[in-house]
Design a protein that fits this description.
Elements lengths: L1 E3 L4 E3 L15 H14 L20 H9 L5 E4 L2 E4 L7
Antiparallel strand pairs: 1-2, 3-4
Length: about 90
């Protein structure tokens, strides 16, 4: 379980497993992180397993959509598709 504070994300034991990405290794993902930083001021993303408690890790787009629809996840990005939940009715 990760914990977030004002400056970094750590595991519950206080350790960090940072992974450094160079653009030449994965230009698309690098550009995504750069765009996220431009919008938010945060040049990092938290990567975690994609599943709900007690369920296997997502392997297909159909499984991802099922987890997305049945959870509190705000957005889902699939190849060529981005889906966002409306928050209009949330308090």
């Amino acid at each position: 379980m990760a914990e977030v504070n004002d400056t970094f994300i750590t595991e519950t034991d206080g350790t960090v497993r940072a992974q450094i990405l160079e653009r030449q290794d994965n230009p698309g993902f690098y550009d995504l992180i750069a765009a996220f930083e431009k919008i938010t001021g945060v040049g990092a993303l938290l990567n975690t397993s994609f599943n709900t408690h007690g369920e296997p890790i997502v392997n297909t787009s159909d499984e991802a959509l099922s987890v997305f629809l049945g959870s509190e996840i705000d957005g889902l990005i699939l190849p060529e598709t981005m889906i966002l939940k409306s928050h209009a009715n949330r308090l």
